[in-house]
Amino acid sequence: MTRLFNDPAAFADEALEGFTAAHRRWVRPVTGGVVRAGATPAGQVAVVIGGGSGHYPAFSGLVGRGLAHGAAVGNVFASPSARQIHSVAAAAHAGGGVLLMYGNYAGDVLHFGQAAERLAAEGIETRTFAVADDISSAGPDESAKRRGIAGDLPVFKAAAAAAEQGLPLEEVLRVAERAGGRTRSFGIAFSGCTLPGADHPLFTVPEARMAVGLGIHGEPGIGEEPLPTADEAARLLVETLLKELPQDLTGPAGQRAAVILNGLGSVKYEELFVVYRKVAALLGEAGVEIVDPEVGELVTSFDMAGVSLTLTWLDDRLEELWRAPADAPAYRKGALDTPGPDQDGEPVTADGQDTAVPVDNAGPATPAVPAASDASRRAAATVLAALDAVARVVDSHADELGRIDAVAGDGDHGIGMRRGSTAAHRAAAEAHRLGAGAGTVLSRAADAWADKAGGTSGALWGSILRALGTALGDQDTPDARRVAGGVTEASAAVRALGGAEVGDKTMVDVLVPFADALAAATAEGLPLTGAWDRAATTATAAAAGTADLLPRKGRARPHAEKSLGTPDAGAHSLALITRAVHGALLDHH
Question: For residue 216, what pLDDT is reported?
Answer without folding.
Answer: 83
